[in-house]
Every structure is written in structure tokens, then in C-alpha cells.
Amino acid sequence: MRAMTPFLLGVVPFGLVYGVTAVDRGLPPTVAAAMSAVVFAGAAQLAAVELLAKGSPAAVVVATILVVNLRYPMYAASIAPHFRAFSTRWRALLAYLMTDQAYAVALVDYQDNDRSPSRRKWYYVGAAATLWVVWQIATITGVLVGAQVPPGLSLEFAIPLTFLALLVPNVKGAPSALAAVVGGAGTVLGTNLPYDVSLVVAALLGVLAATALEVTRETPNDTPAGEGS
């Protein structure tokens, strides 16, 4: 819980923004609150709210959530060796509770090879459950506040501002910058695509562009000096 506390300074306002925005975009308060418990992924929840408000098909909403959360399989592969001693039920619970913050603090703690399996399990649960509880309280508070906002006061600006706040700190180096530019431009240019699939398509294009740039930069130049025109 001590290790997770500094992260809560960002989690609380994020949860409030999600709750207020979900209600403002027409989601019933009970559904908005339930999404935090079922999905439990802030960026994916905001993306889902935006698509649901536009009447997008369920398949597009689910596909978008999967794309936004593509980092979690990588987290899982990285932390899985530390969880091999746990039962299937425990691993399922730990997977449900996984967040960027819980993953980060757990891996730092696990660098001490003397940690017993029980210590590893309860350290992760303590960190992850702390964030889960705070997230639920923050989003429910946002839902209650959002229900009191006059209909004429639009809060649509909250979604792009929140995503920008998540994006900017993670743009590190040319590949991530290229992914951000391609993804953002593709989303805007694909606004008129059917079923609002522009977010999914643009995200995939951004990943492909960044990957291509990394491969190009890592490929050595095999042309001997003096050859070529």
C-alpha cells in the first residue's frame, strides 16, 4: 500500500474524469460504475464510453478495448515466472487486478530474489487491491458528481485532455513519437469510416509504423564502403 500511494495522486482525478464523462455522454450511472468493476482499465473505459455514445457496434467497442490494452499480455509474460507457484484461481485473480502501477511496483519488489512465493503474492495483492478500491471510489464519486452536472454544460473536452495527459509522458524516442503522430492523424482522417473503426485502424497503423522504424534503425548497413553510385 505504501508503494502504491504516490500513484493514487494520478488515479483519483482520472477516475473522477471517467465517472463525470461517462454520465455526460449518456451512460446510465449504474452501467458507468459497473464498467469500472468489470473492465477495470481507465483508458479503455474512456475509449469505450466515447464509442458507446456514438452508437458503435459492440464488436467495435470490444476490439477497441483489446487494442488499447495490448500492453497487458506483455506485462503478463514478464511477470508470469513469479506467479508459477500459485493456483489457477489465484493467477486469475491476479490477472484481473493487474494495472500498470501494480505491475511496476511488484517487479521492483521482486528484484529481491529472497522473496518467498507467499510474500510475492500478498505484496502484489496489497498493491493492486489498493488501487482497485481507490479507482472504484473515484469513479463512483465522478458518476454521482456527473449526474448533477446541468445537461447544457458539455464535458466532451475531458476525454481528449485525459488521453493527452496519458500520451505525452509516454512519448519517448522517435518510434513512440511516430506511433503517436500516425495514430492521432489516422483517427482524425478516419472520422467518417463506418462503425467508428478509425481508432482501431489508426492504433494498428501507429504500431506498424513504429515497429517499421525500429526495424529500420536496428538493421545494419551491409553495403561496403566505396560501393554504389
UniProtKB/TrEMBL annotation:
GO terms for cellular component: plasma membrane. Keywords: Cell membrane, Membrane, Transmembrane, Transmembrane helix, Transport. The chain crosses the membrane at residues 122-145, 157-181, 193-213. It is found in: Cell membrane. It holds the Pfam family AzlC. Its main location: membrane. It is a multi-pass membrane protein. It comes from the Archaea. The keyword Transport applies. PANTHER family: INNER MEMBRANE PROTEIN YGAZ (PTHR34979:SF1). Belongs to the AzlC family. This is AzlC family ABC transporter permease. It comes from Halorubellus litoreus.
